[in-house]
Design a protein that fits this description.
alpha/beta; seven-stranded mixed β-sheet
Length: 457
């Protein structure tokens, strides 16, 4: 959502980020919640003891456990009890006061990622009495009993309870999902919240839930990216900088904690690349995996290169420019910017037919079952990638063969993708949509400033 901030600032608005914690990627106009300093005296004392102890024993597993015991079981017993009962944690006491410290008072509070351990959801009622509240959903958590992505479960349509998977992120210890759901719904009903989703798919999920009528307005505003940074470039030069061969078949896969992230389904991308490599033994195939600790794996003519997630947008652009095609085989996905970034760099994409990705990609095959062998590749003039079914290794392999064997085809689809981003998914397009929304909901109470509250990412 940095794109929204940049646009609003360029349009003359003042933007402030209020975050859970600071790190080097946060903008300079960031402030931090001070939840621990607002806890009761006993909790603060235990936190102070644990901090001092951590300096001495934090390197030991037992020592870390003792520190956590002091902080939680001893220092915050009621909070720990609620956690053990399966209640979602809203114990973040600086939520309201942090906003109230901002002077002059903000006009709009733009909230994101409210399950990211920094925000008391119960504060929405009081905050919405004082400020205009816009919440952008990036997953389904706001309308479920605990999980960010319910997968095939439709419990959220009836108020949750009898949860089939308590370990889904954010996991809970016991099945209090029906209670959590009711508590959220009561909070929203007593608040005034304007809801935004980046995809029609996510808004459809909201409208099928039991919370479909608790929000003041509901608006779909797709994610946008900086098309100046993410842009076509010289593939050969990018490959030289990354140590890749000019004639290698280069496949790109991007996901934080790629191998262990259960939502991203790295295995299907890896197996699809292996199947393609086996079918083309004369080719050298490179699978670049961004979002893992650096390292290599070699299997015959397939080399898998793991690369830590670059610290800034400019660094990752070379990886997009160097690849022939992006593969993104997620099981659960909203409206991923990684797909937009590859498209903006004029790269054809192969993605799972799930979530909001089917809104981003006009598939060459026309559906998620790519029967693309032979010369008839479908609608080249409008397509920008190929949709494959979830966990469809053979589909990924066929799609790779389609693109990697035909430079002209992937070049055409890459240009189509770039044009699609410029038309609908640019930073400017998204910024204008949000600015228009902010203006429309504040029309009766015109103010001068806007503030955004962001989760720690």
């Amino acid at each position: 959502m940095r794109a929204v901030s940049r646009y609003l600032q360029s349009a003359g608005h003042e933007v402030l980020w209020l975050v859970g914690r600071l790190h080097e990627l946060k903008p300079s106009n960031s402030r931090v919640f001070k939840h621990d300093s607002k806890r009761n005296l006993w909790a603060r004392t235990c936190l102070s003891i644990a901090d001092e102890l951590w300096e001495k024993v934090g390197v030991y597993k037992l020592g870390r456990g003792v520190c956590r015991f002091i902080i939680n079981e001893i220092g915050q017993p009621l909070r720990t009890l609620r956690h053990n009962l399966g209640h979602e944690d809203f114990e973040y006491p600086d939520t309201v006061t942090a906003v109230q410290r901002i002077q002059p008072a903000p006009e709009v509070l733009h909230l994101h990622g409210l399950h990211s351990r920094y925000f008391d959801l119960r504060a929405l009622k009081k905050l919405s009495e004082q400020y205009l509240i816009v919440v952008t959903m990036h997953d389904v958590w706001l309308v479920t009993g605990h999980c960010a992505y319910p997968g095939a479960c439709i419990g959220y349509t009836r108020g949750c309870g009898d949860c089939p998977d308590l370990d889904r992120f954010p996991k809970v210890k016991r099945d209090a999902t029906a209670y959590n759901f009711r508590r959220k719904k009561e909070i929203y009903q007593s608040s005034r919240i304007h809801l935004v989703t980046p995809s029609r798919w996510l808004m459809d999920l909201v409208n099928t839930s039991e919370m479909s009528d608790v929000f003041q307005t509901q608006t779909v505003i797709p994610n946008g990216i900086n098309t100046d940074i993410f842009s076509p470039g010289d593939t050969k030069e990018a490959r030289n900088r990354l140590g890749l061969g000019a004639f290698d078949d280069v496949i790109l896969y991007c996901a934080k904690n790629a191998r262990t992230n259960t939502h991203k389904d790295y295995d299907t991308a890896r197996k699809g690349a292996e199947a393609y490599a086996r079918a083309n033994p004369e080719r050298k195939v490179i699978l670049q995996v961004i979002g893992e600790e650096s390292g290599y794996e070699v299997s015959s003519n397939l080399v898998v290169r793991f690369v830590s997630l670059p610290g800034d947008s400019q660094s990752i652009v070379d990886y997009y420019r160097a690849c022939d095609v992006l593969v993104h085989t997620s099981l659960d996905e909203n409206f991923p910017t990684v797909v937009l970034e590859a498209m903006a760099c004029a790269k054809a994409v192969i993605v799972s037919d799930t979530g909001g990705m089917r809104e981003q990609v006009v598939s060459l095959s026309g559906d998620s079952q790519p029967e693309i062998d032979g010369a008839d590749y479908g609608d080249r003039a409008n397509s920008n990638g190929i949709l494959v079914r979830q966990k469809d290794v053979e589909g990924v392999s066929r799609a790779l063969d389609c693109f990697l064997s035909d430079f002209e085809l992937r070049n055409i689809l890459g240009k189509n993708g770039r044009n699609r981003v410029l038309e609908s998914y640019s930073m400017e397009h998204m910024g204008k949509e949000y600015e228009s929304l902010f203006r429309s909901i504040s029309a009766q109470e015109p103010k001068k400033k806007q503030t955004e509250i962001y989760e720690n990412r």
